[in-house]
Structure formats: structure tokens, C-alpha cells
# Entry
Amino acid sequence: MLILSAHLPEVHFAPGDAVVTEGGPTAGIWILVSGALEVRKGAVAVNTITRPGAMVGEISVLLVTVIAATVVATEPTVMRHASDGPAFLVSDPAIAMLVAVGLAERLNFVTSYLADLKQQYGNAPGLSMVSDVLSQLAQRQARVARSGSARDPNPDY
# Structure
């Protein structure tokens, strides 16, 4: 992704600076060049990002929704910014493919983790929602896979 984003402007962040803020408007797509980021949902740190080329903001761009998490620099950080996220995604098929692979890897990890929780702990108190989450993931995937287009709203499968 670093090669494909080389033409984008670079923005420098100091430790503690927010790249994007949960609930805020879509802010395009950010690509990590160097440094480290912490991802927070509410007050809970859920991830760290240190791999150059990693993206932030692609989900809100794809879903046309507000930012789902706050991302904060934890050390001096350099990022590239595509202010027009949709245009960036369609500018090169390789970019769209990298985003798709990254999202598929994350979904696969979450689904596998939830299935492992269900297998290891069954219906232990507090984990009964795991079956519901897995079911919702499967239903959302089926809805997306079967949805048509404006040209063909009811495709046959």
C-alpha cells in the first residue's frame, strides 16, 4: 500500500494526537507510513497498529457511516491521507484488492475467534451472545451476497 499511496500528502502526528475520532464524520482514508497507533472503542483500547501500509478509515468510507473508533498516535507518527476515500479506492484495482483482503482477514479472524469461544466455553454465562453474533455475521454475508443491482435487483442464484 505504501507504493500505491506514495502520491498522497503526508501528515505528522505527535503522541496523543487523534487521527480520527469515534462518531466523527468520515475523514477519508489514512495510510500508516511510520509510527504507532492505538485503536479505541469508547474508553477501551482494542488494537494497536504498527505495520507500515496499514489503513485507517476504510470501513467508514465503504459503509458511508461515521467513524467507528478513535485512533490515536502513541509515538511520533507519519500518515498519508486520501481525503476523497471513495476516489482513492477506485483509482487502482490493486488498492481495492488490498482493502478487500485486509477486511476479509479481519472478518476471518473474528469469526474464527468467536467459533473457538463457542467451542471452548459452550453456553457459559456471559458468552451466550456468541451464537447470536455468529448467526448475525452469517445472515449479513448472505444478504450482501444475494443483493442485486439497480440493473438486476433480483438475480437468480
